[in-house]
Amino acid sequence: MKKTVKTFSQAKANGEKLTMLTAYDYTTASIMDSAGVDAILVGDSLGNVILGYDDTTAVTMEDMIHHGAAVARGAKEALVVVDMPFMSYQTSVYDAVVNAGRLVKEGRAGAVKLEGGVEVCEAIKKITDAGIPVMAHLGLTPQSVNVFGGYKVQGKDELSARKLISDALAVQNAGAFAVVLECVPARLATLVTQQLAIPTIGIGAGNGCDGQVLVYQDMLGMFPDYTPKFTKRFGDVGNAMKTAFTDYINETKSSAFPSEEHTYKIDEKLIQRLEEELK
Ligand code: KIV
């Protein structure tokens, strides 16, 4: 059965944990979907882990549409949430609604995600009014890396902790169906979770959130550039890939690959005739 925003509200009501993982292509989305993940986030982290940028600010609407549609084709049951890229919603509420609409129409999103608190509430309201579910994102919001001056834990002092709580209530009141809390002290994330009627999805925000999200390359050990403290490695796929690539190179160079079992046959008489003719 297709999962929807209802799955999120029911999980919160029943105290069941929600699972979300990032994906950026059809194959990975299909595997995650068959594993039973609740939601797949086409994160603008694709700027880092797929496109090799230093941060997410260079990611475009076209990137998100291209990868969103690929993931949606693989996600038969999981809710597909597509990130609104930097400057696709900050410029005006009109831009926010138009671009959210494109992510649904062209990128096949079931919901969109955008970063920020009070300052994006008008956009959240108008996008939701247009019939598009919105997931909010608070705490460390990577599109603001240049304001934060790096990727730092947020909400550690009183002012920013209070701001996180009021932002969370504001995005809920604006109509967000869930909120990602990134890099927030665990006790603060638990407090926010208890205050909200909508589910919180944590990443580096401890075990008290209503669900968790991870970037799949991080949890599979595939992204050597940087591993955040909050990431647990659930697999060693990066090394498994490297071993397989090395085996392929060695077997090809030694002519061990392709062997008989990976080779097509032709009628013996026909090939002999052709060989004779071309001698
Ligand atoms: O872009 C992304 O992958 C995200 C997650 C880190 C929540 O926003």
Explain the overall architecture.
The protein contains 12 helices and 8 strands. An 8-stranded parallel barrel has the order 1-2-3-4-5-6-7-8, surrounded by 7 helices. 44% of the residues lie in helices and 14% in strands. It has 279 residues and is α/β, with parallel strands linked by helices. The N and C termini lie far apart (63 Å). The chain has helices at 5-14, 26-35, 46-49, 61-74, 93-105, 121-129, 145-148, 158-174, 186-195, 216-219, 237-253, 268-277; strands spanning 18-22, 39-42, 79-83, 111-115, 134-139, 178-182, 200-203, 211-214. The radius of gyration is 23 Å and the shape is elongated. The chain binds 3-methyl-2-oxobutanoic acid. 3-methyl-2-oxobutanoic acid is lined by residues 22, 41, 43-45, 83, 137, 180, 182, 203, 213, 215.
Keywords:
279 residues, elongated, eight-stranded parallel barrel, alpha/beta, 44% helix, binds 3-methyl-2-oxobutanoic acid
Question: What is the element layout, followed by pairings?
Answer:
Blueprint: H1 5-14, E1 18-22, H2 26-35, E2 39-42, H3 46-49, H4 61-74, E3 79-83, H5 93-105, E4 111-115, H6 121-129, E5 134-139, H7 145-148, H8 158-174, E6 178-182, H9 186-195, E7 200-203, E8 211-214, H10 216-219, H11 237-253, H12 268-277
Parallel strand pairs: 1-2, 1-8, 2-3, 3-4, 4-5, 5-6, 6-7, 7-8
The structure holds 3-methyl-2-oxobutanoic acid (KIV).
Short description:
By secondary structure, the protein is of the alpha/beta class. The protein contains 12 helices and 8 strands.
Query: Please, how many helices?
Result: 12
Shape: elongated
| Heterogens | 3-methyl-2-oxobutanoic acid
Question: How large, in whole angstroms, is the Cα Rg?
Answer: 23 Å
How would you characterize the largest beta sheet? 8 strands, parallel, barrel
Helix and strand composition category: alpha/beta
Strand arrangement within the widest β-sheet reads 1-2-3-4-5-6-7-8
Mean pLDDT: 97
Give the total of beta strands: 8
String of helices and strands: HEHEHHEHEHEHHEHEEHHH
Low-confidence stretches are none
Query: Ends: how far apart?
Result: 63 Å
Strand content bin: 5-15%
Helicity level, as a percent range?
40-55%
